Amino acid sequence: MEQLFWCAAWPDIPMARKRLSRIAGIRQVTIQEGGYKLTVQTDTLQNATQAAIQLRELGWRLVPG
Q1: pLDDT tens across the length of the chain (65 residues)
Q2: Hey, is 8 helix, strand or coil?
Q3: Which of 8, 17, 29, 40 would you label with 47, given CA atoms 20 to 30 Å apart?
Q4: Helix/strand/coil (H/E/C) assignment for every residue in the chain
Q5: CA dihedral in degrees (63, 17, 35, 62; nearest 10)?
């Protein structure tokens, strides 16, 4: 499952990577466009939900679609 997130404020990339590293089913994390967009690939819907919760706490928002 692939999700795209964006951050309107200055993103804390090291903290986002740290939180996502705690989720076992994360396959890949890609930072794009100057650090304001982040793509997360996960194994399951449960892992995708956990990633969304962790990133939301840091100010990241899921791009609909």
Answers
A1: 999 999 988 889 999 999 999 999 999 999 987 889 999 999 999 999 999 999 999 999 999 87
A2: coil
A3: 8
A4: CEEEEECCCCCCHHHHHHHHHCCCCEEEEEEEHHHCEEEEEECCHHHHHHHHHHHHHCCCEECCC
A5: 10
User: Taking the CA of residue 50 as centre, how many other CA atoms within 13 Å lie in the half-sphere pointing to its CB?
Assistant: 15
Q: Which residues pair with 31 in a beta bridge?
A: 38
* Among the listed residues 47, 12, 41, the one whose alpha carbon sits nearest the alpha carbon of residue 29: 41
Tokens representing 63 are 């791009």
pTM of the model: 0.89
Q: Which amino acid is at 4?
A: L
